[in-house]
């Protein structure tokens, strides 16, 4: 996806508007139809479906992160849905509250297409995100996770155990498929 530089603030403002409305009206959280009424107020040149993640941080600490690698939703609708899921349905955190909202920083990551790899040596730490699949178990780490886990082996072990629900050495299993991707990410200041 090629975003114009001036569109990034528009997308961040859209995500913030979605969170503000949903935190004030909990009934809006379980559906996305209301997002369609917001969309005409936010103009971006490309509205095609896009693989993306929305990460929320509070005082620079993770507060929620949800996204999709396969989406049928138009860009803004998908972005709004991921923002709400990150704020209210990330199982690692309690739902976002009105009191927390002023302290939340929104980061949006657009993913490149996934590329299947055969050897872990194809993974470039700091550059590539990794998507792992073994049967019905899947896990994904954005490239930003390298800041916390700089070792390739530890990165893969943590991806297996904390994200995919597998043993930490499952990345060595021949049935495990590994995919790499890059991101275009940006956040509120």
Structure description:
The model has no long low-confidence stretch (mean pLDDT 93). The protein is of the alpha+beta class and 189 residues long. Helix 1 crosses helix 3. A hairpin with a 2-residue loop joins strand 5 (129-134) and strand 6. The protein has a 4-stranded antiparallel sheet, with helices on one face. A 4-stranded antiparallel sheet has the order 4-7-5-6, with helices on one face. 25% of the residues lie in helices and 25% in strands.
| Rg calculated over all Cα atoms | 17 Å
CATH class of the largest domain: Alpha Beta
Number of domains: 2
Task: Specify the biggest β-sheet.
Answer: 4 strands, antiparallel
Mean pLDDT reading: 93
What is the helix fraction of residues, given as a range? 25-40%
| Overall geometric form | globular
Main features:
Dna Ligase, domain 1; 2 domains; 189 residues; single chain; globular; Glycoprotein, Type 4 Pilin; 8 strands; four-stranded antiparallel sheet; alpha+beta
């Amino acid at each position: 996806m090629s975003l114009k530089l001036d569109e990034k603030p528009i997308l961040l403002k859209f995500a913030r508007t979605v969170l503000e409305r949903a935190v004030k009206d909990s009934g809006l959280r379980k559906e996305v139809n209301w997002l369609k009424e917001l969309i005409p107020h936010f103009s971006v040149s490309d509205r095609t479906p896009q693989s993306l993640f929305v990460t929320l941080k509070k005082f620079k600490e993770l507060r929620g992160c949800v996204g999709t690698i396969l989406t049928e939703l138009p860009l803004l609708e998908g972005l709004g849905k991921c923002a709400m899921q990150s704020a209210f349905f990330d199982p690692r955190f309690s739902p976002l509250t009105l009191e927390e909202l002023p302290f939340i920083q929104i980061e949006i990551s657009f993913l490149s297409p996934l590329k299947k790899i055969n050897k872990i040596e194809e993974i470039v730490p700091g550059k590539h995100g990794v998507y792992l699949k073994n049967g019905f178990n899947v896990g994904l780490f954005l490239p930003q996770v390298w800041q916390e886990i700089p070792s390739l082996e530890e990165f893969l072990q943590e991806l297996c155990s904390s994200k995919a629900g597998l043993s930490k050495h499952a990345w060595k299993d021949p049935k495990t498929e590994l995919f790499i991707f890059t991101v275009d990410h940006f956040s509120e200041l």
